[in-house]
Amino acid sequence: MKRWLAIVLAGLGGCTASHPIQTQVHVRCVATGAPVEGATVRALAGTLFLPTQQPTLGMAPGETIGPTPDPAASAGRTDAQGIAHMPLASNRPITLRIEAPGCAPLAIRIEMDAHGVARGALWTAAGPRPPSAPPPEGRPLEARVTRPVQPRVR
Question: 108, 117, 107: which is closest to 22 by C-alpha?
Fold first, then answer.
């Protein structure tokens, strides 16, 4: 059964190898639209796994069923224009965690395909929070991910 589930998930496109894609992560303040300089951007690429009822040696939730992401993680810092230049793994969901002095931390999920950003190119802010959660301290941030503009060769 476990083997068949892995085959079905692989057939759904979850086991595609990844490669690094150069991206630009843009970070700005929600209230003013001003770029945020000095924000730390951390990216963690997702890996598909097959859950199991049996504990594993590494206490992992199950066995991975696809190739590992390349790169598995990356980090960058925004410049004066609020842009961090960093490689992200293709064909994967990516979690971005963004922190800047005086701002509320931001965590967003984007999707990368074989050629670039499949979901995440639009400005994205923090989602709704539970009513019982305290309001975040600091200015809210929003971010988007784009590919660098390549100069045309004539």
Answer: 117
Whole-structure pTM over 0.85, yes or no?
Answer: no
**Domain assignment present for 132:** no
Domain count across the chain: 1
Domain that holds residue 85: 18-47+68-127+137-146
Q: What confidence score (pLDDT) does residue 24 get?
A: 93
d(CA 70, CA 6) in angstroms, rounded, equals 21
Euclidean distance between CA atoms 84 and 35, whole angstroms: 11
Q: What is the CATH number of the domain that holds 110?
A: 2.60.40
Residue ranges in the chain modelled with pLDDT below 70: 1-16, 47-70, 150-154
